[in-house]
Design goal:
By secondary structure, the chain is α+β, with helices and mostly antiparallel strands. It has three domains: 9-45 and 220-321 and 425-501, FAD/NAD(P)-binding domain, CATH 3.50.50.60; 87-208, Orthogonal Bundle (Guanine Nucleotide Dissociation Inhibitor, domain 1); 325-419, Polyamine Oxidase, Chain A, domain 2. Helix content is 29%, strand content 22%. The protein has a seven-stranded mixed beta sheet with strand order 8-7-18-19-20-17-21, sandwiched between helices. A six-stranded mixed beta sheet has the order 13-10-2-1-16-22, with helices on one face. β3 (48-51) and β4 (54-57) form a beta hairpin. The longest helix is centred in the last third of the chain and has 19 residues, at 455-473. The protein is globular.
Length: 506
């Protein structure tokens, strides 16, 4: 079914950052691509909505200078100028207990000395705790995050073994770890935590410089992606749910329930274009799509439901065992500006990070603050009234001027499955881009990228899936796979996978 003059017909299921990345990469390489998305928009878990006159992001997302894949996607989408990237890491930190302020910022020295002065002056810790923390930072540089035994160990256990008490974990390690891993140290894999601290803080001085969007995320990702995909000739079908995958000949039939329009090359033809080299073959009656290769860029549970038996190494039920971790965002609009910084990190409080989203939301007067709460299991089911009882007094403690402002609006957004749970041993449940089924690939921040579930991990997974597609399209299914790994030989579609149900690690 390979199209004449092209590199093959590819269907990408899922329009989040992973799917957008994969679709653009395949189209740029000459493939004929259709992207199917169940929602009426693109962007996945990074989206915006209207509340009155304001544009509200569902959650607050930041990136680091070391997020090279994500920053490359911003360049490809043409939106890098709509973001801010600090010239030098600078995090204002306030303690809810006593209101004392500190800063975590780097100097001009090379890593890891770039943070030494800031750490040794870090007020939330005693002088003795600062020295112990500095020794632990140096020890963390030597952790082998590729060792499976490292993944099976809890980060909190490692920290205690290196002299870190509960106050130090809360005020320093969890300040960064919870926001990036969506888990507290005791609930996180040492391998993933080591990845965050090694790559983000200890290898390159500028790696952790923070970046964020100056515009609503829906504009930065979804709207920009829709335009670039159309320019690349990708057919985008939103409000189109994939219900089944079926192997047909040397390709795949994708059954859909469709409710949205096409955007892009071949859109709106309403015909079965089985011979055209410029369009995916569409069955106009059933709404099915037939293509050479498929990339599933959907959440784990959806992927497991669609995958044929034996397509991944893990035993059935792997998506449930991988789990899901929630994030809650508390949104507050007040009558005047009460916080000068673009963001604030908080220790000793359920308030973790506070972001000023006034300009991005389009608020003409007053201030709009968004409180991001990761590892939010205690709050995910709490009613708004209860969350107001918890978070408003805490905001008064860390942003004192808010006490004299009029509260205009208080509301909450929740993502119950914001990320997979980065628990010890979870690496065995994260499949690579290649499956055991010919022409079927996986993408998503939950796949085996080596990163936690971040925007960077999502984009890297899309890149890996596209590389795997292009490699197989050139006849290299059994050749080297993408950087995130490939299945070992000797296992066939429909088998039970590797002994013990362990995933393939790189």
């Amino acid at each position: 079914m390979t199209s004449a003059g092209g590199r093959g017909r590819v269907v990408v299921v899922g329009g989040g950052l992973a799917g957008i990345t994969a679709a653009l990469a395949c189209a740029d390489a000459g493939c004929s691509v259709t992207l199917l998305e169940a929602k009426p928009r693109l962007g996945g878990l990074t989206y915006s909505f209207r509340r009155g006159d304001l544009n509200i992001d569902n959650g607050q997302h930041v990136f680091l200078r070391c997020c090279t894949a994500y920053r490359a996607l911003l360049d490809r989408l043409g939106v890098s100028a709509q973001t801010v990237l600090q010239p030098r890491l600078d995090i204002p930190v306030v303690s809810s207990r006593d209101g004392r302020r500190a800063r975590l910022r780097r100097n001009a020295l090379p890593a890891p000395l770039h943070l030494a002065r800031s750490l040794l002056a870090y007020r939330p810790l005693t002088v003795r705790a600062r020295l112990r923390a500095a020794r632990a930072v140096l020890a963390l540089r030597g952790v082998d995050r590729t060792d499976p035994a490292t993944d099976r160990r809890a980060f909190g256990d490692w920290l205690r073994a290196h002299g870190q008490d509960a106050d130090t974990v809360e005020a320093l390690w969890d300040l960064i770890g919870v926001a990036t891993l969506n888990a507290h140290a005791d609930d996180a894999s040492l391998a993933l935590a080591a990845m965050v601290f090694q790559v983000g803080l200890l290898e390159e001085a500028g790696a952790a410089d923070l970046g964020w969007s100056r515009v609503p995320l829906g504009r930065l990702h979804g709207e920009a992606a829709l335009a670039r995909l159309a320019e690349a000739g990708v057919v985008v079908r939103t409000t189109t749910k994939v219900t089944r995958l079926e192997r047909v000949g040397d390709g795949w039939r994708i059954a859909t329930r469709r409710g949205g329009p096409d955007v892009g090359r071949g859109a709106g033809t309403g015909r079965d274009d089985a011979t055209s080299g410029d369009a995916i073959r569409v069955d106009a009656i059933r709404g099915d799509v037939v293509a050479d290769q498929v990339i599933l860029a959907v959440p784990p549970a959806a992927a497991e439901a669609l995958l044929p038996p034996g397509a991944v190494a893990a035993e059935p039920g792997w998506a449930a065992r991988l789990g899901a971790a929630p994030i809650v965002n508390v949104h507050v609009v007040v009558s005047e500006r009460v916080m000068a910084e673009p963001f604030l990190a908080v220790v000793g409080s359920p308030v973790q990070w506070v972001f000023d989203r006034t300009d991005a939301a389009g608020l003409a007067s007053g201030q709009y603050l968004a409180v991001s709460v990761s590892a939010a299991d205690p709050y995910i089911d709490a009613p708004v009234a209860r969350l107001r009882e918890v978070f408003w007094p805490e905001l008064v403690r860390v942003v004192p001027d808010i006490a004299t402002a009029d509260l205009i609006d208080f509301f909450v957004t929740r993502e119950r499955a914001a990320t997979f749970r980065p628990a010890p041993g979870q690496a065995a449940l994260r499949p690579p881009a290649r499956t055991y089924a010919p022409g079927l690939f996986l993408a998503g921040a939950w796949t085996d990228t080596g990163w936690p579930a971040t925007m960077e991990g999502a984009v890297r997974s899309g890149q890996a899936a596209a590389r795997a597609v292009l490699g197989e399209g050139a006849g290299h299914l059994n050749g080297p796979g993408p950087s995130v790994g490939e299945p070992p030989t000797g296992l066939v579609l429909g088998g039970r996978g590797s002994p013990g149900g362990r995933g393939v690690m790189v």
